[in-house]
Amino acid sequence: MFKKTILSVALTTLLSQPFYTFAAESADLQALRAEMAQLKLHYEQLEKRLQQAEVHAQQAQASSQQAVVASQQAIEVTRDQAAPSPTTSSESAFNPAMSLILAGTYGQMKQDPALPATGFAMNSNPGHQQGFNLGESELGITANIDPQFRGVATMALAPAGGITVENAFIQNTSLGNGLNLKFGRFFSGLGYLNEQHAHAWDFVDQPLVYATMWNNQIGEDGVQLKWLAPTDMFIELGGEIGRGRSFPATDRQNRNGTGAGTIFAHIGDDIGFEHSWRAGASLYDTKRVNAASAGVPDLLGTVGGVNTQFSGDSRTMGLDFVWKYSPNGNTANRYLKVQGEYFSRRETGMLTYNAAVTDTFSNTQSGWYLQSVYQFMPHWRAGMRYDQLNPGTATVGALNASNVISNYAFKPTRTSVMLDYSPSEFSRLRLQLAKDQSRQGLTDNQLFVQYIMSLGAHGAHQY
Fold first, then answer.
1. Residue 129 contacts residue 107 (beta carbons within 8 Å)
2. Would you say 106 and 430 are in contact if contact means Cβ atoms under 8 Å apart?
3. Which helix (H) or strand (E) holds 77?
4. What domain range includes position 260?
5. Taking phi first (over 0 means left), then psi (-120 to 50 degrees means alpha), and beta for anything else, what does residue 367 get?
6. Which of 150, 209, 412, 459 has the smallest number of Cβ neighbours within 10 A?
7. pLDDT (tens digit, 9 = 90+) per residue, 36-77?
8. Would residue 91 count as lying in a domain?
9. Can you tell me the mean pLDDT for 199-211?
């Protein structure tokens, strides 16, 4: 009996030992699995945080890149024509980029648009046209010629028929060191607005100072050289010489040498990535020879005025400034642009009155404008412009003292407001109202409706 009991205890002990061992091992395994589960959960949490951190880093990098691009955008646009690239996205080595600008205007005016501003009868007057007017269509062709040269041609198609060459020039693309050589027919680098084509204007017409002093803008046949400084700040110096084919120069075709010259300097920079600015100074010099003017008022009150001829030196000094602001650097939604220019012209020489009396004559005339354009929402802009001219007080020789008005005691002015809508970058519809008080005693309330449509590839405009 005792042996059986001992045997039973021994057997029970032997049989229960694996169970206890298994139970202990099972508990350890469960604990290990629990730790692994916790590690896995912790790893997944870390991985999720890492992914979120990477997303945030990418967003921060994208925002930083956008800020850098926005801050450099204005200055890069300024450099657009200062140092042309051998290739562009819209033109290839042998296939030119072509564009056609279609424009038209309806004008309603109380006064004869041919009447010049008071005190500026001896200046050119481009004027407006009443009623429906097709306007000037513009055909442009641009292409790289070879690795060293690029060509640009712009033909103006007149509403009444006929084609005139507005621009036709060659640019050298391989000079390097910030140099840009242009030769042929081009718009002068004088001032700020002069190089812009009509379809790029912010208003239907040019400011009074451009209309009276430059017959809207100076086009030159000659050579132009610009230098862009290798600095973070935009610094551009330039000069040009030409035949002097545009007012106020006298285009003398059968003559060697040059008829006009211009020098100019521009500086600009960014302030953060929301603001940018550019300022400039220009000097234009030419000689006028037998420059005829018709219908000039005189002290005797001759009906229809009299005819005069002037020969002498003409020198014009100009200052220009433009400032642009866009919230967060996003010009697609909203932006504000403020610009202004001032010109002063000194002319000294001989004046022939009514083909009869010749004597000395000198005068300093000036003009300026200030305008602002605000894009208050995508596709919509509003603008206001104020123009003013100063006819000056002329110094007239004794022989013509009783014939020529030396002081008109009147400053021509004009105030314009405009609203335009651009469904895309290729189309624009514009409404403009103006109160023109540039003719003494003849206030003119003007209304214009304009359309501008662009077909084909068209390069970016300057800053």
1. yes
2. no
3. helix 2-78
4. 103-135+165-456
5. beta
6. 459
7. 767 776 666 767 776 766 666 565 554 444 444 444 444 443
8. no
9. 95
Which phi and psi angles does 46 have, rounded to 5°?
-65, -40
Q: Give the SS3 label for residue 398.
A: helix
Distance CA 210, CA 286 (A): 17
Specify whether the backbone of 305 is left (phi greater than 0), alpha (psi in -120 to 50) or beta.
left
CA distance 105 to 115: 20
Report the alpha-carbon distance of residue 196 to residue 180 in Å, rounded.
18
How far apart are the C-alpha atoms of 381 and 431, rounded to whole Å?
Answer: 11
368 Ramachandran zone, left/alpha/beta (phi>0; psi -120 to 50): beta
Taking alpha carbons only, the member of 345, 344, 346, 356 closest to residue 309 is 356
User: Is the domain of 216 the same as that of 339?
Assistant: yes
Residue 17 CA, chain-centre distance (Å), reads 95
Asked whether residue 49 falls in the same domain as residue 131, the answer is no
Q: Are strands 380-390 and 357-377 parallel, antiparallel or unpaired?
A: antiparallel
- Based on the domain organization, do 438 and 361 belong to the same domain? yes
Span 238-264, pLDDT tens digits: 999 999 989 898 887 677 888 899 999
